[in-house]
Amino acid sequence: MGSISQLLNTARDALTAQSYGLSVTGQNLANVNTAGYVRREALLETRALGTQTTGTVQATGLRRITDQFLERRQYESTGLSSAAQEHDQRLASLEALFNDPSGSGLGSAVGALFNSFSALAANPSDTTVRQNVLDSASALSQRVNDTANTIAQSRADLLHDAQTTTSQINESAQAIARLNAQISSAEAQGHDAADLKDQRNRLLLDLASKVDVRTINSSGSIVVQVSGTTLVDGADARQLSVDLDSEGKLKILASRDGGQATDVTQFLTGGSLAGIRETRDVDLFAVAKKLDAFVFDVATAVNQQHQQGFGLDGGTGRDIFDVSTVPEGAARALKVSADVFGKPEALGASGSAATVPGGSGNAALLSALSEMPIVFGNSRSVGQAYGDIVGDVASRKASSASMLESRQAISAQIDAMHQAMSGVSLDEEFVNLTKFQRAYEASARVLTTADELLQELINRVGR
Amino acid sequence: MRVTDGMRYTDVQRNLARLQSENADASQKATTGLRIANPSDDPIGAAELARLQASLGNASAHRDTIKAVRGDAELAESTLAQATEIMTRAKEIAMQGANDSLSADDRKALATEAQNLKSGLLQLANTRGSKGYIFAGSQTDQKAFDVNGLFQGDDVEQTVDVGSSTPTPVSASGAKAFTSAGGRDVFADLDALASALSNDDRAGIAASIDQVDASQKQIITERARNGLTVSKLDSTDSVLDQLGTDLGKRQADVGAADPFEAYSRMTVLGQSLQRAVQVSRQILDTTSYWNR
Q1: Contact at 8 Å (CB) between A362 and A351?
Q2: Whether B134 and B267 share a structural domain
Q3: Which of A33, A357, A384 sits opposite B140 (nearest CB)?
Q4: Is A369:A305 a contact under the CB 8 Å cutoff?
Q5: Residue of chain B nearest A385, judged by CA positions
Q6: Per-residue pLDDT tens for A156-185?
Q7: Cβ pair B58:A355 closer than 8 A
């Protein structure tokens, strides 16, 4: 049998529980735009006091509406999408180096040199024409140096960015390790630690944008694996660092303080760090190598032909370019040879000493080199080879753009699935708000009724 | 599916960003007229454009070369024509001199004219073009013949690259036109004629007729060869002109945007963007329903 005091207790518990429901709804509404926030649900249940039926309610805590499987998919898709985005953005800068519709690019500079040889053959003793050959050779050297230096500088910048990114990864790892400890401790004390878990989620998402992340839940704590190695285990965090291998390529190392480092480079698949590595050590490396081979072949062929010619001063065996003995580094080192620099008369236009100054045989042969297969193992002409380089860079960029598009689409889909489960819906929360508000008002009404009943009782009995 | 506000905002942002990006792309194509603004828009097309640009540059340089050498070749042509006329006159003098009715004094007068013809021919043989003495072979910085008609040049032809597999010769040969390298020493023949006329040497005069005739034929032969060079340059130039036009067309086919298509795409995307903005506003408005 119920009593008025029991009714009061029921009303009291109901007010507390509905108030808790309002509080949780408020939390959801407050965090509708908070990254990493997982919507919460107040857990209400009837309070059991032994075998007696009281029908009162109690709030037992809250539940974070999430799915570990979806979270893991989200980390993975974020990592792949970030890697593709980083890769695509960096390649856009490379592409700009080989985009010369305005006619001021490397292709035009190469063309201008051979055109100047053609003009020299037409007018072999003219000093202005000779000076134009030297100017074209200087312009080509400068353009080649600029292009190669920009690629080299990009690689240096990417090394620096890789180091900065690993520092950020290490900071995130330590923060996650700290949160792991705090969450374990909070849960041991019976708290839900929802805010701490949200923080950890946000950090994990941020970490996933920098490196590929896999998580394993382990009794409140989370084990974080990156690039096939454990970065965070409970309250313990390892560190990533960057080094260079013998080819100057990035080496990503994982280690504990003072411990032995493990090379995890080959397992790096996601996050901006993977994008940085791929751009720096695959694309820029290959394009720089191709540019070196192109410059080496062109400069060597021009030198070999020019050595056959005779200058206005009768000199022969001279080079037009100073070029390295091997293709590696040829583009950065290319410059006009001291043999001819500032000496237009030294250019070997004539085919023999006897045919100076009007002989143009060698200049005509130099000009003809532009259409001969002298590049890439004597398989491509200068124009074809430059077209190959442009096509190669363009293909890399186009493929990275297509990869970015597909990965972003997948990532968006996973994000939408995650949002559908864990995101806050204002519509729902407004309904919940009304639901708990009405319940609170009704409970207050119960309290008022109980109070009136008591008042009535006191008034009647007290007379 | 449960739809949250975050999803609505993200969808709206993503769709608007995509439409804006496509709109910007279409505007760029319509305003620049370029189909390939970045090489990655069409890697194969971009590579072809780079190769076409190289070929166009070569064709243009070859045409410039032809322009640069054609002037001297034409000058050689007109000079050799004048030289032929001088030799015609020399032949007339020789035939006149062989006439029995002429006195020794008359022949002396013809000898003086023959000497003048030689001087005139010497002047023609020492004609200067844009690159120096046009009949001196490679020795363009010195006169082809000295005052006595002695050849100081060589028989080296100037060659240029006009896109053929081998360098193309473009200069007239003074050696072949005027010296024994062509068969006859033209100046020696004129000297012999003047000398025979001056000495009233009838047999010498009779012999000179054939010699001067052979010398004239030699000059005519070189003139014909030079005319062939000019004609070859002209035909190469028109081939290169056509090639340039073809390459330019191909360049436009590969790299240029169809203006009508580009403009209509820009218009369609612009309208899509406007509609998307209106729809987005409605989508976002529904979220504030509960606030009303």
Answers
A1: yes
A2: no
A3: A357
A4: yes
A5: B51
A6: 999 999 999 999 999 999 999 999 999 999
A7: no
